[in-house]
């Protein structure tokens, strides 16, 4: 029996992780759930999976949950906030922590899991984007297993199994292109929130969906891939692949290209991370290749999607704090767009402006990362929330 703790259980990754676990209750057990404010869903999850420890975003929500669960004979320990999430991530009987908390909030609990010697199935891009060097050093020093959950990073991870990383000629990350792949550049400024949230292929949370629409998500994945697979930025490429069947490819020095294919269903990479090195049923449908007909690939338009190009610039920048500016400014910009305070086209402008205006910082610890992230958020908000 493998004991699983889930950070972000009521989000897209968490819900789909529980979908997979539901199929394998004889071999996978939930021991911890950390969530935000979706109280009704969290209560249902607790009642079904009977975890030993649970965390909510606030003390008020935690108290309400405790009252709702008063009829249970065996009630879980309930915490809240970052401390509660860290408790879930470090719970004694846990074998594997699924890191699915969105944004910078997932940073410290994921580090805590590694520090406690837990294997981590990582979906939170910001951990590697904000603190890649620190995190990979922690993983190596603790000797824990890091398993990527993002479909693209999981695809690369699967492709290199049985091969030596020094034999990689290039990594090819694929991207659906989001809902605006074919939208003329002059129309990008007037895109509505509803249009941006209508992703043609993937079911994801709002932040990731907007990042996919700007290709910021792919920029974050380029940075992720650099840390996960220890390859220089010159060997990482991005191709638009509208069908979202090829999830990424790896070309080796002999010219052979390995690709991982499957339906656009996050339960596939999640199931691989949960059962690694084995494979288990994910609940995903099979790909109907005759009906699909063809697979197409295109180069991304970095004039229309400048945040993708910016990610490459960051990896060439010797200042490690530039990726923190990149991520923090995007968090603010996406939030402003979702609240209909700025137009869609302004998201990339805010991020690029912050990269030019915000001075770098010395980053030596996780405390430094968090403090600088908060400072960048403060600066960008002050400029654009007036």
Keywords:
386 residues, alpha/beta, Rossmann fold, 2 domains, seven-stranded parallel beta sheet, four-stranded mixed beta sheet, 11 strands, 46% helix, 15% strand
Task: Explain what the structure shows.
The chain is α/β, with parallel strands linked by helices and 386 residues long. The protein has 2 domains: 2-149, NAD(P)-binding Rossmann-like Domain (Rossmann fold); 153-264 and 295-384, no CATH class. 46% of the residues lie in helices and 15% in strands. The chain has 16 helices and 11 strands. The strands form 2 sheets. A 7-stranded parallel beta sheet has the order 4-3-2-1-5-6-7, sandwiched between helices. The chain has a 4-stranded mixed beta sheet with strand order 9-8-10-11, with helices on one face. A hairpin with a 4-residue loop joins strand 10 and strand 11. Helix 5 runs parallel beside helix 6 (125-142), helix 9 (206-214) crosses helix 14 (322-338) and helix 14 (322-338) crosses helix 16. The longest helix has 19 residues, at 366-384. It is globular. The model has no long low-confidence stretch (mean pLDDT 94).
